[in-house]
């Protein structure tokens, strides 16, 4: 994510021997260890709620884009009108709503805290990028790195030149 410019570039610091992003891995391990002290059922239920919220957001975005930009060129298109799309999204939305509704208060509170933390981190990263507090990559480094890796592998010269 740091290579893509979504996180500060210090998360992409790589170990000299194996080229692994050790800072990002360490940060991920700290989060995982912190969460591991919770009961497994709470972890699973929280993951389900956060996934459900993400899917509901995707459904809403899908419908909004179809209404706002009906003629937008897309790689694929569901051959239904707006009423059909609403019906298509309705059944999974009800199931996702059920997952959220049956959650315990502790799980719901944890999900709310994590969602709020994610939103705050998003705006914090935007502020850090715009004010120059932290250095971010522009995402081109990852593309160049992939091209370099492909050029090392014999027989992949065509992929680099755009011919597969």
UniProtKB/TrEMBL annotation:
It is a multi-pass membrane protein. InterPro entries: AA/rel_permease1, RMV1-like. Its main location: membrane. The chain crosses the membrane at residues 21-40, 46-66, 78-101, 107-125. It comes from the Eukaryota. GO terms for molecular function: polyamine transmembrane transporter activity; symporter activity. GO terms for cellular component: plasma membrane. Keywords: Cell membrane, Membrane, Symport, Transmembrane, Transmembrane helix, Transport. It is found in: Cell membrane. Pfam families: AA_permease_2 (PF13520). Belongs to the amino acid-polyamine-organocation (APC) superfamily. Polyamine:cation symporter (PHS) (TC 2.A.3.12) family. PANTHER family: CATIONIC AMINO ACID TRANSPORTER (PTHR45826:SF8), POLYAMINE TRANSPORTER PUT1 (PTHR45826). This is Uncharacterized protein. It comes from Rhynchospora tenuis. The lineage of its organism: Eukaryota, Viridiplantae, Streptophyta, Embryophyta, Tracheophyta.
